[in-house]
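Same chain as my last thread, 209 residues:
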Amino acid sequence: MAFENLQRYIARHLRHPSGAFGRFVLFGLNRVNARMIRSAIEWGALMPGECFLDIGFGGGIGFALAARRLRGEGCMIGVEPSPTARASALRRYRRWVESGFLHILDGDAADLPLEDGSADCIITVNTIYFWPDAAAGLDEIRRVLRPGGRFVLAVYTEEQLRAIGLTRFGYTIRSEEELKALLDDAGFTLHGMHSARAYGHDYLGFVAG
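reply #2:
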């Protein structure tokens, strides 16, 4: 029972990091998710001058990775419901925020505080498991993505998620076919599928527009 409670506690902070333990989780997310986020940015073919949006950015490592491709041109936006994660990103990237290169906003996938067609390349990595309404989140992402833009949904495989014990707590696990159907229902066209492996974990990337 004690181990189960620990798993539930960790899962809650993975979903919504908060406080001192949340800051520790954010540090871990930057290490564990870095390869997935790098893959998502590459699959999204982010280019200089574009507007990059990371939904549920967690530890914020995606901004450092995206900035390398933007080369000081364009902008970056992060939307994140966790105050702890937003505060961490504001501290870490203060100069970019002050210069207007990076915007950190409160919100979630189903309620993006952005205008229609305002982002060229949108990624979200290991977040859809936690969305209360996945269809509403994808509809909102579709609204914010500019015509011709790219959206990358990166997730662990269904098998990988089921092998991780703590995903019993607060995770909604979907198969590859279920995720494809959700994208199709939201009006996306699937342009490509990718698979990769990082730290012994298998993950997928759906590239849509």
